[in-house]
Amino acid sequence: MKKLVLPGLLTTCALTAAPLMANDFSDHRVVMTTIEFLTTGENGMAGGIEILRKDLGNGQLTQDFVYDDPRSSWRTGPGVHYGIKTGNLTDDVNVSDEVGSMRLAVDTWDAQGCSNMMLVENAVDPVSQGLVQKFFNTGIIDLSLTEADVTQVGFLGGADFPYFAANTNVLGVAFTLSWVDGSGNLTDIDTNGKADVAVREIYYNDDFEWSDAEIAPDGTIDFPTVAIHEMGHGFSMAHFGMIARKKGELVAHPRAIMNAIYGGQLREPTGRDKGSHCANWAQWPNN
Question: For the whole model, what pTM was predicted?
C-alpha cells in the first residue's frame, strides 16, 4: 500500500577528512561520504515558532567534481557526465513521464545562463544495479558499475533497495562517493579547497505515491519538484533557507527548490537557487 505524504525535513549526514594533493593516483579508491535525503514530516507544536535550521553558508556542498579527472574512466571528455536509467520506473497512476521529469531536472540546472557545466549524457544500462544499490546489498563498492558522474538510478522500493527498507520515511536520496588516497584521506587534486567527488547516484522511493501532473492530487509527491532538488545535490548544491515549525507546520524562508523541506510543487529555481548554482558553476572548471 502506498503511503500518504506530509511535508518533510531534508537532512544531511556527512563524513569529512583532510584533502590531499596527489600526483600518483594508483592507490586512490572511492568511499561513500555524504547522504542527502528527503523525509516525511512529523507533528509539531500546537502553536508558536520553533527554529529548526538557520540559513547558513553559500548553498554549496564541500565536495565537487574535478575537471577532466583522470581517475574517472567513465568520461569521454572533460565535462560533467550524467546518466538516466530508463528501466527503473514507477507504475503510479498519476505519473505519465518519469524519464521526462528526470531529464527536466538536468535541463533545469543546465539552462541557467550564468554557467556552463559542459554536460555530456552517457549511454547507461537502463536496468543494471546501481553502485550504491549493490553497496547496500553486499557492503561492496564496485566502481565497475559506474557509468557516469551523476546517475539518476530511478524508482526502487524497500524490497529492492535496503536503504529504503531501513528508512521508510525517505522520499528521495542523493549519495556522494568521493576519492580517497591510500591513507584514507579525501583528495583535492585540483587544489580548489573542495574534496574530489567521484560519483553521485540518486534514488526515488517507490513505496510512496508520486505524480507528475500539473496539479498533484492530494496525498501524492510532485516528482519533478523532488527530481530537480535531488539533481541540485547532484550538481553540488547544498540546502539553504531558514526552516521553522509554526503551529505544527514546517515552513521555509525564503522559499526555494533547495530548501531543507519538501513544501509542495516548485519546479522553477528561485533567485536564491540560481545564485547558489551560479556561484559554483560560473567558475567551472575552477569550482
Answer: 0.88
